[in-house]
Design brief:
Blueprint: H1 3-6, H2 11-19, H3 37-44, H4 47-55, H5 70-76, H6 80-88, H7 103-109, H8 113-120, H9 143-152
Helix pairs in contact: 3-4, 3-5, 5-6, 7-8, 8-9
């Protein structure tokens, strides 16, 4: 990321980056566990920082040491506004981490019904399998999740 782009960051975002130990010289710099500033801000649910980082052109599909992208953290934290934002800028909804898991598989296993409904609006690949050969529907942790995923596969 060029220095040019970081000059357009607000004072709030600049201070957030500095406080979290990220460089203003490289906005895609990996931090702890390989998490970029975008991932960290998403995990913390800081919409303004996430939006600004996207607007200056950070790599939205960067992956951390576990090979998760920022969408994983938005889903994990039930940050619906960030899920919508990341999907609107075409983050890879079908990213598979080092276990082959997608965000849809994670949401199914965690019983995150609203997250699943939101993800399904963006047409994730329902046939992807993790390293153990399981699809998202195989992770359905409750009847409602199972019903939603069954209906999505029809």
């Amino acid at each position: 990321m060029s220095q040019l782009n970081s000059q357009y960051l607000s004072e709030v975002t600049t201070q957030w980056l500095i406080a979290k130990g990220y460089s203003l010289e490289d906005l895609n710099q990996p931090g702890e566990n390989g998490d970029t500033a975008l991932m960290k801000a998403t995990r913390e649910g800081v919409y303004a920082v996430v939006k600004e980082l996207i607007d200056v052109g950070v790599d939205i599909n960067a992956r951390n040491s576990d090979r998760n992208n920022a969408l994983w953290f938005a889903c994990f934290g039930n940050h619906y506004d960030l899920i919508n934002l990341l999907l609107a800028v075409k983050i890879n909804i079908d990213n598979q981490n080092d276990n082959g898991a997608t965000v849809l598989m994670y949401a199914a296993s965690a019983g995150k019904t609203e997250v699943i409904k939101l993800l399904l609006q963006h047409h994730p690949n329902l046939t992807l399998k993790n390293l153990d050969d399981y699809k998202a529907i195989d992770f359905a942790s409750n009847v409602e999740v199972l019903r939603i995923l069954k209906n999505a596969t029809k």
